[in-house]
Amino acid sequence: MSQRTLVLLKPDAVKRGLVGEIIGRIERKAGWTISALELRTLDRAILEQHYAEHVGRDFYEPLVAFMSSGPVVSMVVEGERVIEGVRALAGPTDPIAAPSGSIRGDFGTITRENLIHASDSEESAEREIKIFFPGIS
């Protein structure tokens, strides 16, 4: 079943020069395509929409500060089982628990700055794509 997902390459991925490597891993997956891509620094308004479910949690303000600390690559990736697939490619948030071969397993350093975001469900993907790419229906 073909799906769409939002993928964010976070400020640490951009700062460390890992954008090409991560995009290459996504592009090499058979049947997946990048249908939208943008490099930009995120403002608080976008981050408040994106992380609305985390308001009030102890990690919320540090997360917003980190995500607005530098440019982010946002993209829409489409393909078969792409939501599940990109999350597997990313690996668990904790880079120590992430397997070798995953993005976080190969390049992750700390849990808070974990290189990549990928939507966790079709509902989240639809909501998140509308936030980052409002012109895409």
Automatic annotation (TrEMBL):
SUBUNIT field: Homotetramer.
Uppermost EC category: transferase
Source organism of this protein record: Streptomyces bugieae
Cofactors (names): Mg(2+)
Primary site of residence: cytoplasm
Function: Major role in the synthesis of nucleoside triphosphates other than ATP. The ATP gamma phosphate is transferred to the NDP beta phosphate via a ping-pong mechanism, using a phosphorylated active-site intermediate.
Classification via InterPro entries: NDK-like_dom (IPR034907), NDK-like_dom_sf (IPR036850), Nucleoside_diP_kinase (IPR001564), Nucleoside_diP_kinase_AS (IPR023005)
Active site: 117 (pros-phosphohistidine intermediate)
Keyword Aminoacyl-tRNA synthetase: no
Family listed: Belongs to the NDK family.
SUPFAM superfamilies cross-referenced by the UniProt entry: Nucleoside diphosphate kinase, NDK
Protein name: Nucleoside diphosphate kinase
Binding locations of ATP: 10, 59, 87, 93, 104, 114
